[in-house]
Amino acid sequence: MHLRPLFLKGLVLCGLAWLPARAEISPLDLHFTRQATQRMIFDDDQALPLLSLDPAKVAGLELMHPIRRTTGKAEVSVPQGRLMVRGEGATDTSVWFSGFNPFATYQLEIADCGEGSSIGLEFIHPDGEVLRVETVCGKQSIKGVRWNLKRKDQTLVEGEAEEFRPRSLDKPVTLIVQMAAVGFNVYLKQHDQVELVGRTDIVAHLDLRKTEVFRNMSTWLRVAGEDGAYAAIPKATASLTSGMGQADIRAITDEEGTPLLDGGRLWFTATTRGGGLPNPAQGVFSLDPGIFDLKFEGVIAFDRGDGLLRNELASHLFLDRPSGEWRGWTVAFSAYGDPAKKEKKEILAVRSKKDPRHGFSVMTSKPMELVGDYEDPHGVFDKTANKWRMLLCRNVNGYKAAVFESARWDGDFQRIAGPVANDSTGTTIQKVDGVRYAFFGSSDRCFHVCSFPDLQPLGKLDLDLPPWEENGNGRVWPNLVPLPEGSPAPYLLLTFDRTNFPGMKGPNWTYGAMHLYYGYPKGK
């Protein structure tokens, strides 16, 4: 039996069932009411596991987790469900934990430690680079966090948590290291509260995106001390996570722009945030449209064939039904990753034979002659015109929506409409009552509606509790989805806010929480 034709047939049927009954309404006839809101902050129940060190399930410690004793002869054991490291005098001991992923989140739970000990993570490359992120212990407490990158005996980068607030170990403290492609963020978690304590980029010294780097790196748990060391570690994990904020939400569709309803769930791309533009990653989420059960499904990286695994963002993915291939467009925000390279921002065409919605995926990408300050591409194949049409933001004295057209999905696009007069973000094409419209968010705190493809302004979406404050940043995306008959509402709107994660210094875009709305015709 060939599974691919059956899978495609199921999706096609979903698309046919999607078309709402003709009601002669436009987007301006809809009223959207907020139903729910949620921000994921390293939610354990949403993490996609890469590895978990659970001492209670370790049999054959040094076989499963080899031990390296650089200095001294510390004892390492796993009694009572904890990894215990104890040594006298000068001691430096590391326990192998996992391989390495430049988009993963690493967590180390500390239940107890000895004064003067340092407990943390080290990421080792066989060429001699070692990145360490560690806590500094006081008497039954964490009194500091520090990090450094060394190449053999040379220190390339070092830093520490400023104005640090000590944490008593009356409850375990978790060290969180969020890898962010060209650098990392450091957090401490206690009593379910996550607090950012530091961040830095290291790409000038070690580019973690390089395949020859991350494929050869390994991750270790390290315990060290000048006058003895002690650590009790209940658990350590490496996982893909939704980050500490989500943004840039867009429905995954078929080639004509119909959102996929697969397995009773809608599928979306959304940015998993980690800092400024070089740091986030492309995430995938799903949702049962009848309830608010947002689920983090995966992370997508992009391969341009240059030896780097890139973190492009703001993607529109679609299942091309004629070929059975997953395709789409993304923004080359990784151009900001290494300032020394001075790469150009552009729109890329992406493709994959593997379903990229699950786990960790790599899509191939290539330039498509849209080089410059373009953002937020969203495209459809228009059967009437026999053309591919793309709505995106183009920087013309500020980002403005424009429509481009081509006979090919992956190049030769030429502008046919726009730019509009209004500031634009999150440019989206969607049907209401069988008619395509152009939608975009704006700095004027509204969701604009235009005709498509000529981009004539029609009005604004009507929301009861919009995802912005009266004087706040309203540049968010209007991700509108028509729902099939039998759904709790005829239309759904999934968007986000731009509230940055507290305490992050320097350039950062870590927004936000996700907000679910249902849309109904006014007066009904």
Structure notes:
The chain is mainly beta and 524 residues long. A hairpin with a 4-residue loop joins β9 (118-124) and β10. The relative contact order is 0.15. The model is unreliable at 1-23 (pLDDT under 50). The chain folds into two domains: 3-44 and 242-521, 5 Propeller (Tachylectin-2, Chain A), CATH 2.115.10; 48-240, Jelly Rolls. The protein is 5% helix and 51% strand. The protein contains three helices and 42 strands. The radius of gyration is 25 Å and the shape is elongated. Strands 20, 21, 22, 23, 24, 25, 26, 27, 28, 29 and 30 form an eleven-stranded mixed beta sheet that branches. Strands 3, 6, 9, 10, 11, 12, 13 and 17 form an eight-stranded antiparallel beta sheet that branches. Strands 2-19-7-14-15-16 form a six-stranded antiparallel beta sheet, with no helix packed on it.
Main beta sheet = 11 strands, mixed
The residue fraction in helices comes out at under 10%
Question: How does CATH name the architecture of the largest domain?
Answer: 5 Propeller
Output the CATH topology of the largest domain. Answer: Tachylectin-2, Chain A
Count of strand segments = 42
Query: What is the total number of structural domains?
Result: 2
**Percent of residues in β-strands:** over 45%
The helix count comes to: 3
Q: CATH first level of the largest domain: which class?
A: Mainly Beta
What's the CATH H-level homologous superfamily of the largest domain? Glycosyl hydrolase domain, family 43
Principal-axis shape equals elongated
> Average pLDDT, to the nearest integer?
93
CA-based gyration radius: 25 Å
Unreliable stretches covering 5 or more consecutive residues: 1-23
Which structural category do the helix and sheet elements fall into? mainly beta
**Cα separation of the termini:** 47 Å
